[in-house]
Design goal:
This protein is α/β, with parallel strands linked by helices. Helix content is 32%, strand content 17%.
Length: 243
């Protein structure tokens, strides 16, 4: 894994946004894997700003988001689909049919997970996967466990993960779903290139385990060590906590 530290999270977001925009300009039909949560907020702000300033055309871009809460979808409060619409999709000219998303309200969630896998394959696969990392080392919603599921699947969320997502539910932990749908680690690792972003001292333990520990299901992010094209982007606050 190649690591790079930036003086601020804003500098990190601007650099990554420029890289994504340059990729879209060079390859208009690029397929992007996208995260949600606090960490990518600055990235989406920068993507919106640069796209507007430079007239970037997203019409042929395809996206697949990592995960969605069970019981949430579309414009539901707290849904990641709503999060992405508000932070990115409504600000660029991406075509609705090119937005790949899991439906947490699907009648049969197992069938929905298989549909998502087929959609990713039909798109030609994900070219650039952008990831965050949870404080417990999770990627997407692949939580630490004795075993990990390779494909898109239904998962029970750990308490720290639910607490970290209370922000999207008005700070009320009782409203945060206990389950989610997520790409599996195998699905993530099939992306042609991966960029992981992490900011703030609270993520230091997870990043340290990802970079310097062995590959273990107790730190799902450690499986990124198996991929040949992974870039890790950190802010200096976090980087200062590492060996």
């Amino acid at each position: 894994m190649k690591c790079r530290a930036f003086p601020t999270d804003a500098a990190l977001a601007e650099t990554l946004a420029r890289s994504v925009i340059d990729t879209i300009v060079r390859r208009p039909n690029v397929v992007l894997g996208l995260p949600t949560g606090r960490t990518p907020l600055a990235l989406y702000q920068q993507l919106t700003r640069i796209s507007a300033a430079e007239g970037v055309d997203w019409a042929a871009v395809r996206t697949f988001n990592l995960d969605e809460f069970v019981g949430r979808g579309g414009d539901d409060e707290g849904s990641y689909r709503r999060f992405m619409q508000q932070r990115l999709f409504s600000h660029v000219n991406i075509q609705p049919q090119n937005i790949g998303f899991l439906d947490g309200r699907a009648a049969d969630l197992a069938v929905e997970c298989e549909r998502y896998e087929r959609a990713i394959v039909a798109s030609g696969g994900i070219d650039v996967m952008v990831l965050g990392i949870g404080g417990n080392g999770h990627i997407g919603f692949n939580e630490p466990a004795e075993t990990l599921v390779a494909r898109t699947h239904r998962v029970t969320l750990d308490s720290p993960t639910r607490a970290a997502n209370a922000l999207w539910f008005g700070g009320d932990l009782t409203r945060v779903p206990h389950e989610a749908l997520t790409m599996g680690m195998g699905t993530i690792l099939r992306a042609r290139s991966i960029i992981l972003i992490a900011t703030g001292e609270t993520k230091a333990d997870a990043v340290r385990a990802m970079l310097y520990g062995g590959v273990t299901t107790q730190v799902p992010a450690s499986f990124l060590q198996l991929h040949a094209q992974v870039s890790v982007m950190l802010d200096q606050l976090l980087a200062d906590q590492l060996p």
